[in-house]
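Internal ticket #5521
Category: modeling
Description: The requester needs a full-assembly model to guide mutagenesis choices. All entity lines are attached below as received. Residue total reported by intake: 906.
Assigned to: D.W.
Attached entities:
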Amino acid sequence: MIVETSASIVGIFLSIALPWFTGNLVSRYFLGPGYPASLYLGHGYLLGNVAVIVWMGLFDVVGVPLYFWPILMAVLATGVIFTFLVNRKVPTHRVTMPCPQQIHKARLKTGPSIAQWMVAGLLAVLTLIQLKFIHDEILLRPTFPWDAWRGWEPETLQHFNSRSLSADMQTVSNYGAVASQVHLWTMLAAGVDKAAVTHIPWLLAYIAIGLTVYGQLRIRFGVLQSALGSFACLSLPYLMIHASLAGYADIWLTLAFTLGVFSIALIRKQGRSSVLMLVAIYIITTLLSKRAGLPMGLSLLACMFFVLVRWTPARAALVASVPLFLSAFLIATTKGYFHLNIELPLLGLLEFNESYIRLPLLSKYTFDVSLNLWPYVEAVFLYANWHLGTFLLVACSLALVFRREIVARVAVHVFAMFSALVFILGFFLALDPDSAQDQTALSRTLLYLSPLLAYTITSIACSAFLTSPRARDSVSC
Amino acid sequence: MTGADTPISNREFLRALLVAVVALGISAALVIGGYLLAFPLLHSEFLPQRDSASSFSLKGKDFTPVVAADGGYEGDSIVITALAEGRPDDQAILMRKVRLRASDYAFLRYDLEGRHPGLRVMLFWKTVAGGDTPHYSELDNPGNGLQYHNLRRSEEWDGEITELAIGFFGDLRGGQTELRGVRLEPYGARSLLGTIWGEWTHFKPWDQKSINRYVGVSEGALLYPTPIAAFWLAVAACIALGWYWARKRMRATPTYRLAPGLAIITSIAWLALHGLWLHKLWLQNQETRYLFHGKSVHERRLADWDGEYYEFAQKVKDALPDDVDRLALLFIERDMFEPFPQRLRYHFMPDVKLDFIRQITPGRVRYIASEYSYLLIMHNPDTPHLDIQSLLDEYRYELTGNDAVLIQNGVGTLLRFQAAPAKHTGERA
């Protein structure tokens, strides 16, 4: 590891390990037992960092200066409490679904073939190469991305310098707490501010995304299929760029949104209240990531609604009419028939008229409609951001037509992508077409969906082709 | 790994691998063949207007250095060992008078050694119609050796060409660059495929746009690799399915028996794209290591893309008294707001807060003179030598005897206002 000599290696190690340990326990508590360790680890990394952010916020509110060791002790105490809670909790909603690997284990006596070892080995080698490249980039390069040095890192440096969450010089409005405070936490741990090693959480966020996709697939599929899905996700160039050029909040929002959707997909299998709590944490985390977290948080809410409602034809018709009603309302408002002007308590003014929309706590967006769809085609199908991901998603959608029993298994993930795309397209088409035309923001918002893309492709392909009929019949999760 | 859930034996795997490789091979032949057949119909502008058009070759020794610090001829090649000083980059230009029709040639084949990301290479040309006005097209960087360039990328490649030149800009990094030769070629399958491959393997180091999207090809490329790979995969999958169907095993074999072949086809196509990406990432890794490996934090910042601004910030910090923790910055032209003033602010953090960054106006100069003790004036990088007295005269501020220019270089000027109060009130202009 190439680390600046002035940075505290022990501090950095503890700043990663203890919150991750705590987050792991928190995820075990909320998800319940029986899931793959990798899934807990994926959740655990973000939850651990959320715990750190919460503790830093509490310290700051009560006026305690932000120093590494007291916060670490508070996080450790949280871990101890959750250790107790996890061991005490009676698993009322234990995962009872038989997993295919268990069925096959019982059915097949033979071990993995040489071919399977070769594929697994190839994936492992490629993943290690990728991690090495990202590792070098993060630990060698000074802060690189524009928004980081231009926007939030100057504020983080002030936080570090003043050991508080206040800053005399405001430099940013677009970023929330997550990326900047995770970075602040590593600065506090390292004892230095501008060292490249303080960007190491971006590498870990990338790893956490891989673990999460692997773990979620592992619930239903075997090691090799899950590893393929996870590799598909980790090999996406654009995700690797956001890990390598550490500094942006997008990878954190990607992680939070993915974990939120995966948690929602588990609601029916697990006790609702505990997983709902987890989803609530992720919704708040998406909102705290950056402005773009608002539509992602709303998508998670829509997903939760989608899962929790007992669907009857009447309710489905009612819900289907909502977008139509909203569209009609939107058109009528932009044509000048309505004006909305509401002062929301604690939040501020919500304004909606023919010229602009003002969202409380966020910003004012002027309507600037453009229906030029070419940038979307470029970002989705032509650019090398996602390798073959979007093409395979289209192909897998065709598989859903022929194998309709698979639809239920990926319905939440597809719905999440769809609802997020509605927000993304609505934003770029109606409010900010320039940042889509010049490709400064479009791919970045699509990044949030990339782990779901890899998961959905793998899940559909494995369900349709790779799983034997016997295993298919016995899998109901 | 249990692996037991994937019911495939080694024999089945090898059979599926064979089917996949054959299907992908046939698919590649069909896709490439189809593209080569369709290309002249889709892009008639690449075809020469005369049937007699033939390639035009120049060896390295046929060029004359018009701008270069050092170098010479070695056999048929020309070697550059040092670049001449220039702005914004050091440079060398090799020129050759010619007389040829642009419409005869669609591709440039060139043989060059000593390329790296710090050295940009450009093709220049002059035309009869354009007179002395040079046109240029930047050559992609797919690496050393024989490479191709699409001349039709530039609309100015037109008319009667009177002069060709190859320009090198940037830094030789202690090495040398060798031009062995260039050849202008009419449309041909080999040069077309060579050009596309060069555009796909072109490497450009990270820049500030890298975080926005990953295009995967150079600007102006003929084809994107992603849809081509998708098409290649789709045709191969159809061939594999056809093979299964032809052997009438579709009905006898459970659906999942098709899976290994399709999975391998998909994986190979995915890995082919991933290979292109990892190749670029590897080159980027070499570039990053070249710039930053084995260096202290200070040295890395000096080696970064705005090293001179970092260095300037350190000089200013050293020149400021310990009790000064705020600074104002005025830049001269409107479009200078980004990125360098912001980079300077970042480099000053956390010791000094650059909390006033604006374009220079008479009112703002007066405001800063009254509210701040020190002022940074940022120069236009293209016109670095600034007469600060004339500039301030222009903005109706007269330097007093106690005011002083503490630092002045190509980045900016640090002014001290002696008459200013020691403390900043926080009021804004």
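Resolution: model delivered.
Comment from assignee: Chain A touches chain B through 89 residues (CB under 8 Å).
Ticket closed.
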